[in-house]
Amino acid sequence: MTVRSASTSLSLPLLCVALAGCGDAVATTDTPTTSSSSSTTETDPTTGVTPTTSTTTGDETTDGMTGSASESTTTTSTTTTTTTGPDTDTAVSATETTSTNTTDTSTTDTSTTSTSTTSTSTTDSTSTTTGDIEAPETCLTADFPVKVPLCGDGGPACTTLRDETVSANQKFRNDMPAIALDGDCEPVVLYSEAVNGYHGFYAERLGPDMWATTPTPMVVATGSLASDPDADVMFAMVDDGAFGTSLWRHSDGQWAQEGALVGMNHVRAHQLVRDGAGALHVGHVDSDFAVQHEVFDGAWSKEQVVTNAEIHVRLALDAADAPRLTSWSTADATWKLHYFAPPGVAEVVTPLGSNVLERQHHDLALVGPEATPWVLLARKQADQVHHDIVLAHRTGPATWETETLAAENSPADKVCDGPPQEAGITCDFDYRQLFPLALVAGETELRALYLAIRRQGTLVSQCEQNPLPFCDWNTQVEERTSELRVAWPGSQPDEHQVAAVDVFTDRATARLDTAGQIHLALYHLPAGAFDPHVRYLMLGGG
């Protein structure tokens, strides 16, 4: 019998059939506070313990949602001031297998088998890429920040340069895959499957449509990657699905555990960053949903920055390796996106405009010589149904300016409002939904990636006695299309460039290489599928 794995420490699957947000939200109302403490290294993650705070899963149901991108951009400024008060080194060798396939548009699926740390995983990837785009020669530490023009905003037109399937296996998964670039600017992807337990996989790109995929020796429910490109080393911070979080090093085809966080914690993609001195920074929440910033340089140090937070913390480092973090947190009985520059106080970037957090995925990037923080997010509209895609940046102490890149609920939408009054009625619908995907930053430029999914179809009414007569809409036929759009500060919706189509997800992880090309990893849910597969895209100027 096949069993889908889930735990209290994990979100529901990333992609529900209707593309729900499927994340973890905490229904609390306390004001954020800050404190600092230190901790020692623990060699074994804790397991099997439930959180001590009550949690509410903020699952978004998008059936019947009536969102669409509008053609207006608005800018507002908000000013807020919130005062807030020796490891086991076990090397394990994993057997590599290389999967290849041709570069036509045919689709082939093969199954993945993983029974132990020495078993192999073979996946025939499929792709719409013809040939390959030449990567830059190096993506070493000295090559960053990226100085070349990025696509869009007067630069080259944004287009799909690579479109490949890392794993064609359609499996139940959590959150999103992690991605990093090696010293040769080729991507590596860490992803998981949550069927009959949690299983991690490490995939390295060898060439066009060629990925070497191996199972990881550690349990991976979700994880994050950071690269040391100069030494050809990858680091992974992984969550075992039972509040245990451990740090691993991958070199010469072997995994070695570096340490583990003390206590019960959650880790997601994009929560591990390596600084210029080689120390590793982790931004995450503990089992009480307090945001923690921890640093590993042979031993762990920790400081708490805010409480009552949602699980998807974002972390970036400035040129001096000072950490910057963002997280949704509850305060004054509503959700607010907070920004932290430890040891300073927390600042409110923007309120959500609701006490129900459905699209919690957001991204953080630092731009320019002053490392100005920028945040991409989805914010609720006043009707509590639709969302705006918002880009925010800090203009001064506790002062943030926001602009709406795109908005749902266009006047052109066709929706089926209210329950039907009798059986056998049909109603046609046509509307769009918007999802923030990723931010990437060069030396002076910023690009925001978001997804616009168009849903068209027909609903038919059905009625039943339950125990009184009740009628509801049911989908008779539906077609989905999508555009992965690239935007930038000050841009209007009609200026945004479509870099890819037929992408179906609600979040992604991204890396920028030294040629200004954007590498994306995501869990993609094809039309008619129940579970997603793992997809890789490279976007840039063609």
UniProtKB/TrEMBL annotation:
- Establish whether keyword Signal is in the entry: yes
Task: Could you list this entry's UniProt keywords, alphabetically sorted.
Answer: Signal
Segments of this protein annotated with the region Disordered:
27-133
Identify the stretch annotated as signal peptide in this record.
Answer: 1-27
Q: Which domain of life is it from?
A: Bacteria
Q: Which PROSITE patterns match?
A: PROKAR_LIPOPROTEIN
Q: Compositionally biased, Low complexity: which spans? A: 28-130
What protein name does the entry list? Answer: Uncharacterized protein
